Amino acid sequence: MTRTNPTLLSRRDLVKVTVAGLFGMSHSGWLEGLATRAEEARAQGKRPKSCILVFSFGGVSQLETLDMKPDGPEQVRGEFKPIATGVSGIQVCEHMPKLAQQMRELAVIRSMYTFDGGPVHDAAQKGMVDCFFQGARKPRKGIGVGAVVSSALAPPNFGLPTNVLMDNLPGRPPVEQGEAGFLGAQHGQFHVDPFKGIECLKPLTEMSHFDRRDQVLRRLDQLLAEEHRAPVIDARRSVYEGAVTLMHSKKSEVFNLDSEPAALRDAYGRHHFGTSCLLARRLVEVGVPFIEVSHNNWDHHGKIFPELKGHMLPQLDSGLPTLIRDLKDRGLLDTTLVVWMGEMGRTPQINKGAGRDHFSQAWSIALAGAGLKTGQVIGRTSADAMRVEDRPVSFKDLMATILLALGIDPASEYSVRDGRPYKELDEKRQMAAGLPVRLLDADAKPIQELLGRAS
Amino acid sequence: MIKSLHRSHWRLLPTLVLVLASTGSVARAESPTFEKNVLPILTGNCLSCHGGLKQKGGLDLRTAASVLKGGESGAAVTPENPQQSLLWQKVAADQMPKGPTSKLSADDKKIIQAWIVAGARSARPTDPATAELPASKRTPTVVAAEIDQLIDGRLLAEKIPPSPPASDAEFLRRAYLDIIGRIPTAEQAATFLDNNGPDKRSKLIDELLARPEYGQHFSTIWHNLLVPLQDGKRVLRPPFRAWLARSFNENNSWERMVFDLLTAEGDEDTAPPVGYFLAQPAADKQSFTTARLFLGIHLECAECHNHPLKLWKQTDYWGMAAFFTATSSRMTGKGKDQKATVTEAVRSKQLPAITIPKTALTAVGSKVPASFLDARTPMPDEQGKGRHLLAAWLTAADNPWFARASVNRLWAHFFGTGFVNPLDDLDAQNLPSHPELLARLTHEFRVSGHDLKHLIRCICTSKTYQRSSRILVKNQDDNGCFSRPLVKVLTPEMLYDSLTVALEVPELTLPKPFVARNDRVPDWFYEPRNIFANYFTYRDGAVSTDFDQGIPQLLRLMNMEQFNNGGKIVERLANARDEPDKVVESLFLATLSRRPQAEEGRLMAELLKGRDDRQQAYRDILWILLNSSAFSLNR
Question: What's the pLDDT at A18?
Fold first, then answer.
């Protein structure tokens, strides 16, 4: 694999070229590399951290899940009953019995207060992704937490995408945790179908036949690049080479779920969500830093009770608790942060259609793993569920908590020019890079009560 | 099988916005100017008190003119005399900026001092004197010569050698892609390459401009600019796009087209330009997009507040939006015949006004009357339509921005970068690389009656355009001097159209996107060209010189049925039973618009050696060529 002289490339183009770096520059198997990494980590007694975001787009009703109001008026409390959990004094909804059993591993936040963005799906989600890089003179919009975590934690030449998205509603408007912006394309969300892995990954001819085509193509590209020397040619070549490397990569074995025991597959649930959770665990095992499992369809403006009881909660209650238990059984939970959240909650008052509408002033989420102090509830809402009475948590506060749990400093400064941590640049590069931008504003307040062991 | 082809996030998301600094990367020994040297210092240190938000002591430090004018204490700067300059006295004595920690560094001070000593110059372009400018439209050859003279003069001064002239093959493919948005067929390529006529390049430019595909190409570009993505998807407006194509092909004046876009009323079938309003039926969005695309003015920050660093005020933003307040759309008709109709209420002799909504940060609830972005005042007439007032002002021959922004955008279409970048932010602090050339082309565009084909002829006839894009060691750092055109990436639509040409098929066969059971989708949704474009498009404002496709896109191209089965072309060539090297030549002409070079011919011969199944071997070659970098780039 011949490359042209990299000094011909501008810094900007080098960032693009690293898209190839993402998939490594060699065809050597990932298993060897992975084994070494795992051994190294074992030798040092630590594993790299990962984050799984279970994202329930549409808005989960806090009153039917984590913050029930059994003593509230009828128009607030709804049809479901609370049940006891593995932690005395904490109750959750009766339709999440397995999750209830895992309460020791969970920290529930009942005081999400997310005025920014407002209670509309896309706007609320924008509020989430617009947390980062806001303090700079030119705020950066739309850079998502997945890209931030991937850029901070992804090992070089990793061999698989480092920010993976599994989404259960193809054909709908994209649900995504933002772009990668100046952090680099390699940190953008890479869509994977849990049933199929990466699509179009196999050639339509024999691999040996494909290789022969590939060799000639590379030679043509090389001739062009030598004659022409435009950086964009190298940018394109590197993405092409990355695609071919991925086609050869044994690492794509991670997408083959056949080796998983049938009982475990059943426990996760064989639906899209359960399968995504299982694949998320496998991706964590090989060291992928950020995985989003998107579980859509929580926007219950009508008939909320049969919908939740019939579909959404049973699905959730197979995938999520099994994921947490499975991670724990494999010793991965201490290094893996699991976040379950939507983009907002739902109105305390049940509407005329027996549903609940959008509400972002007081809602709930749950966190697990990564050494957090779990088995506790953070925050409290009023009896009518309308207000946060204790410890309001904004998106920024949550993001600061997530970063600290993963060992990433929210005060880190980045070079906008090439997305690298500013302090890693020498003085000359700092000059060229201009002013650094701060990852999170200083006014983001991490939830220290959770972070005990983690930070 | 591949499902949900149009998911917009099946890709590695892009990285960086290419910032082509107008300052260029070429060091020049020249005296400091306000905009290049001093403003960056003032921006970070002074403008929060002496800028757009506050003007303490009546002093506004945002432009050279306002600094010279000064505030309540008189002129802030006396050119050539720092000691007599209030600005320098305050800064030198650390009296300004106020506050204990925020003093200027010694280096910054030196720059300010040097700027005053050198005469307190501004780099604001001074338009060429009107007397020098020709009164009427000139021939493309004459204008092209003027382009070359001004570009070459600058290159000479900067000591940057231009790249050599483009070969016929380079020019051919680039002209096809730039003007009609697709590559030539094998036959068209061979005909041009084998023609020895002296003026074949000019003839080709004329031929291409006369093809209906010219209008279609530019209608795709403008449709995508005027109908932005929503939730990562674009709602196509076929009648609107057809109207754009027709208007471009008939070469209606740009001013007329924009006037119609801004004032159309009715439904999309009878008044297709209403598509522009329907795409974003809100006064503030209309205003913002209109300013951005037609004037090169970026009002974004001014939506919510006055900006400390920019010249535009919140009242500018809402004053412009006010022109659109009386316009609305509603659904008329029933069932299948239901369609959106745009109407503008008549407010005779009244100036429309708008109330700043709660989403703004400042001045919420205050009422802003319609106003122009320059010193002129809108005069309400009997016709009583706000949008007509705005459109007439915007497209008037003496509007300071309209023609300039259009020329800059069209130049960037051909060269990969404008005189001013970004294309939608031509503000006073963002200086053009070639002020005089931009002014002259702007003038030419005006006196030609905003004739787009004429401007394209002028640009494409120039030696500057007809250069190879190959990079020389000595011009590799050129950033904005136009020593060579930049290599561009084919847009998704250009890639699609070019693939159909190369494969010799009317359309590509692509898996239909997933649609939820009860969702009714319009016909265009399943158009393969749309499916293909959606798969590659995920954000507006992509920079043509950035390769931002990701691995999923390339995997799709490599491993899709149609890119492996050879299309109609391999069938045709195999049936013709030509000699293999002749077939290889045809495949090169059909994909890369040129004949193979010696080394390439050798590689292909090697690939063919000993292969009994010729057709499969030709498929291999076609696959290689279609997936090569050369195919998806426009150099």
Answer: 31
